[in-house]
Amino acid sequence: xxxxxxxxxxxxxxxxxxxxxxxxxxxxxxxxxxxxxxxxxxxxxxxxxxxxxxxxxxxxxxxxxxxxxxxxxxxxxxxxxxxxxxxxxxxxxxxxxxxxxxxxxxxxxxxxxxxxxxxxxxxxxxxxxxxxxxxxxxxxxxxxxxxxxxxxxxxxxxxxxxxxxxxxxxxxxxxxxxxxxxxxxxxxxxxxxxxxxxxxxxxxxxxxxxxxx
Length: 213
What we know:
Elements: E1 4-5, E2 22-27, E3 30-35, H1 47-58, E4 69-73, H2 79-86, E5 90-95, H3 100-111, E6 120-123, H4 130-133, E7 143-147, H5 156-166, E8 172-178, H6 182-194, E9 198-203, E10 208-212
Parallel strand pairs: 1-9, 4-5, 4-7, 5-6, 7-8
Antiparallel strand pairs: 2-3, 8-10, 9-10
Protein backbone atom coordinates (compact mmCIF):
# COMPACT_ATOMS: atom_id res chain seq x y z
CA UNK A 1 0.00 0.00 0.00
CA UNK A 2 1.14 3.53 -0.74
CA UNK A 3 1.97 5.63 2.33
CA UNK A 4 -0.69 8.06 3.51
CA UNK A 5 0.12 11.74 3.08
CA UNK A 6 -0.70 13.67 6.24
CA UNK A 7 -0.13 17.01 7.90
CA UNK A 8 1.12 17.35 11.45
CA UNK A 9 -1.65 18.99 13.43
CA UNK A 10 -0.78 22.14 15.33
CA UNK A 11 -0.45 21.80 19.07
CA UNK A 12 -3.34 23.10 21.14
CA UNK A 13 -2.42 26.36 22.86
CA UNK A 14 -4.52 27.64 25.77
CA UNK A 15 -5.95 31.15 25.57
CA UNK A 16 -3.98 32.20 28.65
CA UNK A 17 -0.77 30.47 29.65
CA UNK A 18 1.71 31.53 32.29
CA UNK A 19 4.16 28.83 31.22
CA UNK A 20 6.77 30.05 28.79
CA UNK A 21 8.84 26.87 29.02
CA UNK A 22 5.96 24.43 28.49
CA UNK A 23 4.00 23.31 25.46
CA UNK A 24 0.42 22.07 25.51
CA UNK A 25 -0.86 19.25 23.30
CA UNK A 26 -4.10 17.31 23.09
CA UNK A 27 -4.08 13.62 22.15
CA UNK A 28 -6.69 10.92 22.78
CA UNK A 29 -8.86 13.47 24.58
CA UNK A 30 -6.20 14.41 27.12
CA UNK A 31 -4.36 17.69 27.51
CA UNK A 32 -0.64 16.96 27.78
CA UNK A 33 1.75 19.55 29.19
CA UNK A 34 5.36 19.09 28.13
CA UNK A 35 8.29 20.90 29.71
CA UNK A 36 11.14 21.40 27.29
CA UNK A 37 14.76 22.36 27.80
CA UNK A 38 17.06 24.02 25.30
CA UNK A 39 20.07 22.46 27.03
CA UNK A 40 19.69 19.06 25.33
CA UNK A 41 18.54 17.90 21.91
CA UNK A 42 16.59 15.19 23.69
CA UNK A 43 14.56 17.64 25.76
CA UNK A 44 12.76 19.24 22.81
CA UNK A 45 9.62 18.01 21.03
CA UNK A 46 10.65 17.27 17.45
CA UNK A 47 8.31 16.77 14.44
CA UNK A 48 8.62 12.97 14.48
CA UNK A 49 7.12 12.80 17.98
CA UNK A 50 4.11 14.85 16.86
CA UNK A 51 3.69 12.66 13.78
CA UNK A 52 3.82 9.36 15.66
CA UNK A 53 1.57 10.60 18.48
CA UNK A 54 -0.98 11.74 15.93
CA UNK A 55 -0.76 8.45 14.02
CA UNK A 56 -1.15 6.27 17.11
CA UNK A 57 -4.22 8.24 18.14
CA UNK A 58 -5.81 7.95 14.68
CA UNK A 59 -4.97 4.29 14.02
CA UNK A 60 -5.84 2.52 17.24
CA UNK A 61 -7.47 -0.41 15.44
CA UNK A 62 -4.38 -1.04 13.32
CA UNK A 63 -1.97 -0.60 16.23
CA UNK A 64 -3.80 -1.52 19.41
CA UNK A 65 -1.47 -0.69 22.30
CA UNK A 66 -3.83 -1.73 25.10
CA UNK A 67 -1.98 -4.02 27.52
CA UNK A 68 0.95 -4.25 25.09
CA UNK A 69 4.57 -3.91 26.23
CA UNK A 70 6.07 -0.82 24.61
CA UNK A 71 9.67 0.44 24.69
CA UNK A 72 10.49 3.93 23.49
CA UNK A 73 14.14 4.54 22.66
CA UNK A 74 15.32 8.14 22.69
CA UNK A 75 12.11 9.17 24.45
CA UNK A 76 13.22 12.79 24.86
CA UNK A 77 10.44 14.81 26.44
CA UNK A 78 8.23 11.74 26.79
CA UNK A 79 5.34 12.89 24.59
CA UNK A 80 5.08 9.64 22.62
CA UNK A 81 5.42 7.50 25.76
CA UNK A 82 2.65 9.51 27.43
CA UNK A 83 0.35 8.98 24.44
CA UNK A 84 1.16 5.25 24.48
CA UNK A 85 0.29 5.16 28.20
CA UNK A 86 -3.03 6.87 27.58
CA UNK A 87 -3.72 4.22 24.93
CA UNK A 88 -3.27 1.54 27.59
CA UNK A 89 0.27 0.24 27.05
CA UNK A 90 2.84 -0.92 29.57
CA UNK A 91 5.48 1.68 28.68
CA UNK A 92 9.20 1.84 29.32
CA UNK A 93 10.62 5.21 28.27
CA UNK A 94 14.39 5.33 27.82
CA UNK A 95 17.03 7.93 27.06
CA UNK A 96 20.46 9.21 28.07
CA UNK A 97 21.13 9.97 31.76
CA UNK A 98 21.18 13.74 31.26
CA UNK A 99 17.66 13.69 29.81
CA UNK A 100 16.01 11.43 32.40
CA UNK A 101 15.11 14.08 34.97
CA UNK A 102 13.05 16.13 32.52
CA UNK A 103 11.64 12.96 30.95
CA UNK A 104 10.56 11.59 34.33
CA UNK A 105 8.98 14.92 35.27
CA UNK A 106 6.89 15.07 32.10
CA UNK A 107 5.74 11.47 32.29
CA UNK A 108 4.88 11.70 35.97
CA UNK A 109 2.87 14.92 35.76
CA UNK A 110 0.88 13.70 32.76
CA UNK A 111 0.07 10.17 33.94
CA UNK A 112 -0.10 10.26 37.74
CA UNK A 113 -3.85 10.84 38.04
CA UNK A 114 -4.94 8.58 35.21
CA UNK A 115 -6.24 5.03 35.35
CA UNK A 116 -3.46 3.39 33.34
CA UNK A 117 -0.44 1.15 33.69
CA UNK A 118 2.31 2.98 35.56
CA UNK A 119 5.09 3.85 33.08
CA UNK A 120 8.76 3.22 33.76
CA UNK A 121 11.68 5.52 32.95
CA UNK A 122 15.11 3.96 32.45
CA UNK A 123 18.54 4.86 31.19
CA UNK A 124 19.50 3.42 27.82
CA UNK A 125 22.69 4.30 26.00
CA UNK A 126 22.42 2.90 22.48
CA UNK A 127 24.57 -0.15 21.96
CA UNK A 128 25.85 -0.27 25.55
CA UNK A 129 25.03 -2.86 28.20
CA UNK A 130 21.94 -4.08 26.39
CA UNK A 131 22.10 -7.69 27.53
CA UNK A 132 23.05 -6.66 31.08
CA UNK A 133 20.30 -4.07 31.51
CA UNK A 134 17.64 -5.67 29.28
CA UNK A 135 18.39 -9.42 29.13
CA UNK A 136 16.56 -11.22 26.34
CA UNK A 137 15.34 -13.89 28.73
CA UNK A 138 13.36 -11.29 30.71
CA UNK A 139 12.48 -8.43 28.39
CA UNK A 140 10.31 -8.76 25.30
CA UNK A 141 8.41 -5.87 23.75
CA UNK A 142 5.44 -5.86 21.41
CA UNK A 143 6.31 -2.41 20.07
CA UNK A 144 9.50 -0.38 19.82
CA UNK A 145 8.83 3.33 19.29
CA UNK A 146 11.42 5.80 18.03
CA UNK A 147 11.09 9.39 16.83
CA UNK A 148 13.75 11.65 15.35
CA UNK A 149 16.50 9.42 16.68
CA UNK A 150 18.42 9.87 13.43
CA UNK A 151 20.02 13.26 12.96
CA UNK A 152 23.55 14.54 12.47
CA UNK A 153 25.37 12.44 15.07
CA UNK A 154 27.90 9.65 15.21
CA UNK A 155 25.81 7.05 17.02
CA UNK A 156 23.95 5.56 14.06
CA UNK A 157 25.63 2.14 14.20
CA UNK A 158 24.89 1.74 17.95
CA UNK A 159 21.32 2.90 17.26
CA UNK A 160 20.88 0.28 14.55
CA UNK A 161 22.35 -2.39 16.84
CA UNK A 162 19.89 -1.33 19.57
CA UNK A 163 16.92 -1.54 17.22
CA UNK A 164 18.05 -4.98 16.06
CA UNK A 165 18.60 -6.16 19.65
CA UNK A 166 15.09 -5.28 20.82
CA UNK A 167 13.22 -6.36 17.69
CA UNK A 168 12.52 -10.03 18.26
CA UNK A 169 9.99 -12.15 16.30
CA UNK A 170 6.60 -10.53 16.76
CA UNK A 171 7.97 -7.10 17.65
CA UNK A 172 6.85 -4.08 15.60
CA UNK A 173 9.15 -1.08 15.26
CA UNK A 174 7.41 2.24 14.58
CA UNK A 175 9.94 4.90 13.63
CA UNK A 176 9.09 8.49 12.67
CA UNK A 177 11.88 10.76 11.53
CA UNK A 178 12.47 14.06 9.82
CA UNK A 179 14.79 13.35 6.91
CA UNK A 180 17.34 16.15 6.62
CA UNK A 181 20.68 14.72 5.48
CA UNK A 182 22.01 12.06 3.13
CA UNK A 183 23.13 10.11 6.22
CA UNK A 184 19.47 9.81 7.23
CA UNK A 185 18.69 8.01 3.98
CA UNK A 186 21.81 5.88 4.34
CA UNK A 187 20.58 4.77 7.76
CA UNK A 188 17.15 4.02 6.30
CA UNK A 189 18.82 1.82 3.69
CA UNK A 190 20.59 -0.12 6.45
CA UNK A 191 17.30 -0.57 8.30
CA UNK A 192 15.70 -1.89 5.11
CA UNK A 193 18.53 -4.41 4.75
CA UNK A 194 17.72 -5.86 8.19
CA UNK A 195 13.97 -5.43 8.60
CA UNK A 196 10.86 -5.77 6.52
CA UNK A 197 10.06 -2.04 6.17
CA UNK A 198 6.84 -0.31 5.12
CA UNK A 199 6.31 3.45 4.90
CA UNK A 200 3.00 4.02 6.69
CA UNK A 201 2.70 7.78 6.24
CA UNK A 202 4.55 10.84 5.01
CA UNK A 203 4.26 14.40 6.24
CA UNK A 204 5.68 16.40 3.31
CA UNK A 205 5.57 19.85 4.91
CA UNK A 206 7.93 18.69 7.65
CA UNK A 207 9.84 16.01 5.69
CA UNK A 208 8.77 13.37 8.21
CA UNK A 209 8.36 9.74 7.24
CA UNK A 210 6.66 7.18 9.49
CA UNK A 211 7.90 3.65 8.99
CA UNK A 212 6.89 0.24 10.29
CA UNK A 213 9.52 -2.47 10.53
